[in-house]
Write a structure and sequence with these properties.
single chain, 11 helices
């Protein structure tokens, strides 16, 4: 289903892009706790970190098409205000009302999970008392053509860990989380493990070394061992190589019995917004005590050697990991804990 997000207010029209519209829609979901954090700590102590891979690239594509047709760029187009990450960040900061450190992380599909790591560092370093952190990406021709050229784009819904998986299914979206030094939320991000195995520009290390390092780093950062993890929300893109590498990393680091699911069968791959979206879904799983299903995983590829949850089920979840993998061997593991 394609949702047509409303146009931004007139004061932000110069920054208009589909990514901005989607991000603003999602921001409404955290408006109340965000305002509370600003009132409590002061706007200078509340930061903003955004993960995105495209920014307002969709506006540039439209502008270039208009230039090709008329010979001139549209008068209402601005690369700095609409396309650039800085323009998107500026508009979001004005709406959020934050005045603390603000910046963008862009590392392809780990963008917004690495943004969570950045936000956690700001809080641990006592630079901020709260950070609004999230991800936003919109569909555009450049992204679609890029993944198609790699031969990993599926024309069907994503089928992670299935014997019939044949590639990623790209979506668009946004998600925001509010990290606080002292909060009463449903769960907390206690650690984020990061690694870069640099195996290939576009393919993961086949043995999952990078993902394994990220998982082990997250566990070490929280001071826990592998047996403490109750659930893994896998990156699970539905490509043959990614699912193999990730399954190997999970089995090696956490064992073959830990419950695993991939939510991409329900959302598609949200690219730069995937990390924050899946971290939010992991928070919801911990809060509600429900392991989400791996939609589209049947028939399951049992040769992967992981315990894949195909239908939703109740479970007591004290700790859960949300994994992300990206181009260049970039990997993250976000550890979410019950309060």
């Amino acid at each position: 289903m394609v949702v047509d997000p409303p146009a931004p207010p007139a004061s932000l029209r110069e920054h208009d892009s589909r990514a901005l519209r989607i991000a603003l829609m999602a921001m409404e979901e955290v408006r109340i706790p965000l305002d509370r954090a600003i009132t409590k700590n002061g706007c200078e102590r509340v930061g903003l970190v955004l993960g995105t891979s495209t920014g307002g690239l969709d506006r540039t594509e439209v502008a270039l098409e208009a230039r090709d047709a008329s010979g001139a760029m549209p008068h209402d187009y601005s690369f700095l205000s609409q396309h650039s990450f800085g323009g998107l960040l500026s508009a979001l900061g004005r709406v959020a009302g934050t005045r603390g450190p603000a910046y963008v992380v862009s590392t392809a599909c780990t963008s917004s999970s690495k943004a969570l790591a950045a936000a956690l560092r700001l809080i641990n370093a006592e630079v901020c008392d709260a950070v609004l952190v999230g991800g936003a990406d919109a569909l555009c021709h450049t992204t679609l053509h890029g993944f198609h050229s790699l031969g990993v784009l599926s024309s069907q819904a994503c089928r992670p860990f299935s014997t019939e998986r044949n590639g990623i299914h790209i979506g668009e979206g946004a998600a925001w989380l509010l990290l606080e030094r002292e909060g009463d939320g449903p769960a907390r991000v206690s650690s984020v493990g990061e690694s870069s195995d640099a195996h290939s520009m576009s393919a993961p290390d086949p043995e999952g070394r990078g993902a394994r390092l990220a998982i082990e780093s997250a566990l070490a950062g929280a001071g826990i061992d592998a047996s403490s993890v109750d659930f893994v929300n896998a990156h699970g893109t539905g490509t043959v190589k990614n699912d193999q590498a990730e399954a190997a990393a999970i089995a090696e680091s956490l064992g073959v019995d830990v419950p695993v699911a991939s939510t991409k069968g329900m959302t598609g791959h949200l690219l730069g917004a995937a990390g924050a979206t899946e971290a939010a879904l992991t928070v919801a799983a911990v809060e509600r005590g429900v392991i989400p299903p791996s939609a589209g995983a049947e028939p399951f590829d049992s040769s992967l050697g992981i315990h894949l949850v195909r239908t939703a089920r109740r479970a007591t979840l004290r700790r859960a990991l949300s994994l992300s993998m990206a181009f260049g061997g970039n990997n993250t593991a976000v550890l979410v804990e019950a309060p």
